[in-house]
Amino acid sequence: MGIPIDRARVRDSLAEWASEDEQRRLWLSDGANGAEVSSFSEAWEGLFTDTGLGSDLDRGRVVFNASTDAMLQKLDTLISRIDAERTPDQIIADIKMREVRLLAASLLPLI
To answer: In this structure, how many other beta carbons lie within 10 angstroms of the beta carbon of residue 69?
Structure first.
């Protein structure tokens, strides 16, 4: 079994993926006056790498339950299909992000 998953950290990461407003606040921030800063890549790593979630899912370990884990794997796949080599505005406006946001929002109450 992997390192125990920090549910609060997973929820915080999913909240960022679920909200266009939060993405705009974080991904477009320049960090002035101590403002929080994030990016598409940091958000992806935050959810799947920093939490250990991706590693456990890749190994076929049950993290939450089969259904939730399948949804998380689908979210990872959807995120991977978005071209990250663009400006944050372009990424946020990408039509594929709608499905990412909807799935992330549907995952929040399950974690």
So the answer is: 17
In Å, what is the CA distance from 34 to each residue of 13, 26, 29, 37, 49?
20, 12, 10, 9, 25
Closest CA to 63 of 74, 77, 52: 52
- Report the C-alpha gap between 33 and 107 in whole angstroms: 33
> Can you give the pTM of this predicted structure?
0.93
Q: Two tokens at 23?
A: 């993405």
Q: If you search the block for the tokens 């940091």, which residue do you land on?
A: 42
Question: Can you list the alpha helix ranges (DSSP code H) found in 1-111?
Answer: 7-18, 20-27, 40-48, 53-58, 66-80, 88-93, 96-107
Q: What is the pLDDT of residue 91?
A: 98
